[in-house]
Design a protein that fits this description.
- The protein has 347 residues and is an all-alpha fold.
- It has one domain: Orthogonal Bundle (ABC transporter involved in vitamin B12 uptake, BtuC), CATH 1.10.3470.
- The protein has 13 helices and two strands.
- A hairpin with a 2-residue loop joins strand 1 and strand 2.
- The longest helix is centred in the C-terminal third of the chain and has 29 residues, at 318-346.
């Protein structure tokens, strides 16, 4: 039962760092003549003021809780897998291909489009794992390279093979049978959030409730003990990359078949670009924990959605809004960054 106890120390650290981030943001606003209290009121009201705002905050959070899994499970294995961006691109392409070009019955269609996206993300993660095993290529180098390859490959496919006729700026939209149901008219939140949360819960139980998950965590916490205990390091590494790829692929699908009004991928990849890298910060805020990532993603979604109200209602410049959000995220991520560095030095 110990694993189900509330980790009060990380919670307290998060609360303290939130206040530190807010204070830092206020100090940044004051020299420019803005009122911090008015700005933060607009931020909070914009993120949680109405039911529609709460749903929109959750819509922003959905892909981030998944890309956070990609980085978090890598850290649990002792890896720095920063390939969520590229794996998400390929997941989005997989979702577009199945959801926009293939006609299937409702229910089956959305399920197959989701699975195709997850499979595409996992397959794109596999080469980096094999390069690590066979040639000792560091995962940071390989995943960065594969991110760029995926970016240009996805853009090429989106423009030349998946473009909507007469609409060069986007791919074919997902057919109605391949779309997750929308919660509320005019909202961009769909039932895909349940799939995302369920996947995060699955990863939690996999890590702390199965022998394979224990071996994965042991390989990251104490490689020598894992080796002496007979843990297959290569198998653990591959599983870490595959689970991360599945999560990133699902994140890509969530923005295509689970995020109106476009229901498609922009040719510039603008509606998914950056979400994989944002997931790294979300994972750090959530202490590289699958459930902590859900809460961290909601917080970041609130900053993204509510930040627009800081500009509209409090008059804060949009660039300054992004800087303030960045300060808050950095403050929240510092404790976990420090913990990772201490573990590395100790090892």
């Amino acid at each position: 039962m110990r694993r189900f106890q509330i980790p009060w120390r990380p919670v307290l650290e998060s609360v303290v760092t939130i206040f530190i981030g807010l204070i830092a943001g206020a100090l940044l606003m004051i020299p420019f003549g803005y009122k911090p209290l008015d700005a933060y009121y607009a931020l909070f009201k914009g993120a949680f003021g109405t039911v529609e705002d709460v749903l929109e905050t959750l819509a922003f959070a959905t892909p981030l809780m998944l890309t956070a899994i990609t980085f978090a499970i890598g850290v649990k294995t002792g890896l720095f897998n920063i390939g969520a961006e590229g794996q998400m691109y390929m997941g989005a392409i997989g979702a577009v291909a199945v959801a926009g070009l293939i006609h299937l019955p409702p229910g089956i269609h959305v399920a197959l489009a989701t699975l195709a996206a997850m499979l595409a993300g996992a397959l794109w993660a596999l080469p980096a794992a094999l390069l690590k095993i066979w040639r000792g290529v560091h995962e940071v180098i390989s995943t960065i390279m594969f991110n760029w390859i995926a970016f240009h490959l996805s853009m090429y496919l989106a423009i030349y093979y998946l473009a909507e006729p007469g609409r060069a700026e986007r791919t074919v939209p997902a057919l109605p049978t391949a779309r997750y149901p929308v919660f509320m008219e005019g909202s961009s939140i769909t039932a895909v959030i349940f799939v995302a949360v369920a996947f995060c819960i699955f990863v939690y139980f996999y890590l702390w409730g199965t022998k394979a998950g224990y071996e994965l965590r042991l390989a990251g916490e104490n490689p020598d003990a894992a080796r002496y205990g007979g843990v297959n390091a290569q198998k653990v590494l591959i599983m870490s990359f595959l689970i991360g790829g599945l999560a990133a692929g699902l994140a890509g699908a969530s923005q295509i078949i689970g995020r109106p009004p476009a229901w498609s991928l922009y040719a510039t990849l603008g509606n998914i670009s950056g979400l994989g890298f944002d997931g790294i910060g979300i994972a750090l805020i959530g202490r590289n924990h699958p459930l902590g990532g859900i809460l961290a993603a909601i917080l970041y979604g609130a900053l993204q959605h509510g930040g627009r109200f800081m500009e509209y209602h409090a008059g804060v410049n949009s660039e300054l809004v992004r800087a303030i959000n960045g300060l808050i995220i950095i403050a929240l991520a510092v404790p976990e960054i420090g913990a990772i560095i201490r573990r590395r030095l100790k090892r």
